[in-house]
Design a protein that fits this description.
With 292 residues, this protein is of the alpha/beta class. The chain has two domains: 137 residues, Rossmann fold; 143 residues, NAD(P)-binding Rossmann-like Domain (Rossmann fold). Helices cover 35% and strands 20% of the residues. The structure holds 2'-monophosphoadenosine-5'-diphosphate.
């Protein structure tokens, strides 16, 4: 990549940042389209978040992604949030528009695009079990609700956090059926049945010693299983799904599409999906991480 006086800077703010996969896919996309952009990682000290965000415009940076642990903390320093970021309460993309900082969240729509491509089951009216209630779970839950999901069951280690997510969903989606389960509750076999979709948004499954996050006997051939982990590419949960002959996807597609949507926000151009996918697949095998 040739850096010149005309190169435009975009990047990602996080801490730590060494694990990020985003530079590979974005820089590959810029090169493929011969765009004069460069995507850089910024390791931001916790106390420097405000100063860093306020430096975006004076430094001429065109936009940044935001990752752990700043997706919520960044909100007070922005001028405006788009609808998704406002609903989810977290920002993964900042756009500089007419001298103002606009916060977006592309995680949920990234998940939906990956789901439609890889699982290809209608979302409308369907029941989803979401395991976890953190930022990624919130993005996925709101996106599914917007797509007309019929029912969402939330199962989180900290039940209170699950309840907060359920309440936030209820306030916005009146006809959506929502319930919250205790993490180790029995009876899940009676709640989850044919045609349902199970989504793991936690980090359980990244380590080979991790337990299976659901009882294996609840899987049925008509279900689908999504794990937002992409490395390892096959978690114990996904292995169970494959062995049961049911549809499954890991987190690489969501990572790809959330990045592609950020790219489109910054450049106004259609993202070269296959170039970005190849760059991710090439690098994913070398890094251990979950969603960004
Ligand atoms: P992200 O923004 O990537 O979703 P997060 O907001 O830190 O990250 O959320 C992580 C989620 O994984 C949470 O739901 C967390 O459960 P708690 O709310 O109880 O913290 C869940 N999680 C992380 N480690 C877990 C574990 N070992 N067992 C069960 N759930 C876990």
């Amino acid at each position: 990549m040739l850096i010149t006086g005309k190169t435009r800077i975009v990047g990602i703010f996080g801490n730590p940042i060494e694990q990020t996969m985003s530079p590979y896919m974005h820089n590959a996309a810029f090169e493929a389209l011969s765009l004069p952009y460069c995507y850089l990682p910024f390791n931001i000290n916790h106390n420097d978040l405000e100063a860093s965000v306020r430096s975006i415009i004076p430094l001429g940076i065109k936009g940044v992604n935001i990752t752990i642990p700043f997706k919520m903390k960044v909100i007070p320093f922005l001028d405006e949030l788009d609808r998704h970021a406002g609903l989810i309460g977290a920002v993964n993309t900042i756009e500089v528009r007419e001298g103002r900082l606009i916060g977006h969240n592309t995680d949920g729509n990234g998940f939906i695009k990956a789901f439609n491509e890889e699982i290809d089951l209608p979302i409308a009216g369907r029941r989803f079990l979401i395991i976890g209630a953190g930022g990624a779970a919130r993005a996925v839950a709101f996106a599914l609700a917007e797509e007309g999901a019929g029912e969402i069951i939330i199962k989180n280690r900290t039940v209170e956090k699950g309840r907060v997510l359920a309440d936030d969903l209820r306030k916005n989606f009146f006809s959506l059926k929502i319930s919250v389960m205790e993490f180790n509750a029995y009876g899940i076999n009676n709640l989850i049945t044919d045609g349902d979709v199970i989504i793991n948004t936690t980090s359980v499954g990244m380590k080979s010693s991790d337990p299976l996050i659901i009882p294996p006997d609840i899987l049925r051939p008509s279900m689908a299983v999504c794990d937002l982990i992409y490395n390892p590419p096959e978690t114990p949960l996904l292995r169970g799904a494959r062995k049961s002959g049911i549809r499954f996807m890991n987190g690489l597609g969501m990572l790809l599409y959330q990045g592609a949507l950020s790219f489109e926000i910054w450049t106004g151009l259609k993202a070269p999906i296959e170039v970005m996918r190849e760059a991710l697949i090439r690098e994913a095998s070398k890094t251990k991480c979950r969603t960004e």
